């Protein structure tokens, strides 16, 4: 039986090792029904395709999960040309994570820049100025993981204008 899951996190610190355990539970809709109809094996798999990229001034982006797919939760890959940035440091109401796949990045948070390399995660708290740019001579590829605030009027308009990533 298919079931949509809701993750509940349990966090603990043991010595200097941090553990995060996620437990899944079915998502119960109004009236007690479990919503499983909108997700299928076909629309839950998204393989990268150059045909579906969105060009940016600094490179391109690819939505593995756009804001319309899973209640605002998103997964996007950004690819940035050498010594470029998709946009300058900025602030928004949602928090987000970046995960560096390839290249050298400079990460900006609260007035400070730091250089990072692949397999590094970066956290951007909500309402804190942050940014990322390519610090190397090759493409920078990184994932952006974020849940869009569907109550923010700017985000509502953006989400409305986006096509489905699936």
Write a structural description.
The chain is mainly beta. The protein folds into 2 domains: 1-37, no CATH class; 50-161, Jelly Rolls (Sandwich), CATH 2.60.120. It has 1 helix and 11 strands. It has one helix at 153-161; strands spanning 5-14, 17-26, 54-56, 59-70, 73-80, 96-102, 105-109, 112-116, 121-124, 130-134, 140-147. A 6-stranded antiparallel beta sheet has the order 3-4-5-11-6-9, with no helix packed on it. Strands 8-7-10 form a 3-stranded antiparallel beta sheet, with no helix packed on it. A two-stranded antiparallel sheet has the order 1-2. The longest helix has 9 residues, at 153-161. It is globular.
At a glance:
With 166 residues, this protein is mostly beta strands. The chain contains one helix and eleven strands.
Mean pLDDT: 80
Q: Report strand order across the widest sheet.
A: 3-4-5-11-6-9
Number of E-type strands: 11
Shape: globular
Helix/strand/pairing category: mainly beta
The helix/strand series, from N terminus to C terminus, equals EEEEEEEEEEEH
Low-pLDDT residue intervals, each spanning 5 or more residues:
1-26
- The CATH homologous superfamily of the largest domain is named Jelly Rolls
CATH architecture term of the largest domain: Sandwich
Radius of gyration: 18 Å
Q: Biggest β-sheet: count, sense, barrel?
A: 6 strands, antiparallel
Whole-number tally of structural domains? 2
CATH fold description of the largest domain = Jelly Rolls
User: End-to-end span in angstroms?
Assistant: 23 Å
Total of helices? 1
CATH class of the largest domain: Mainly Beta
Helix content: under 10%
The share of residues in extended strands comes to over 45%
């Amino acid at each position: 039986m298919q079931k949509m899951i809701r993750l509940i996190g349990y966090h603990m610190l043991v010595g200097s090792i941090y553990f995060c355990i996620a437990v899944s539970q079915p998502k119960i809709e109004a009236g007690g029904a479990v919503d499983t109809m909108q997700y299928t094996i076909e629309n839950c798999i998204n393989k990268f395709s150059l045909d579906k990229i969105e060009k940016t001034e600094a490179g391109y982006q690819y939505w593995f999960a756009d804001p319309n797919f899973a209640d605002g939760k998103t997964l996007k890959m950004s690819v940035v040309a050498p010594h470029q940035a998709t946009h300058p440091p900025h602030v928004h109401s949602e928090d987000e994570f970046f995960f560096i796949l390839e290249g050298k990045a400079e990460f900006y948070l609260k007035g400070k820049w730091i250089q990072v390399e692949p397999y590094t995660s970066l956290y951007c708290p909500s309402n804190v100025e942050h940014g990322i740019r390519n610090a190397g001579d090759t493409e920078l590829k990184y994932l952006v993981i974020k849940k869009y605030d569907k109550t923010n009027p700017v985000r509502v308009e953006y989400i409305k204008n986006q096509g489905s990533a699936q």
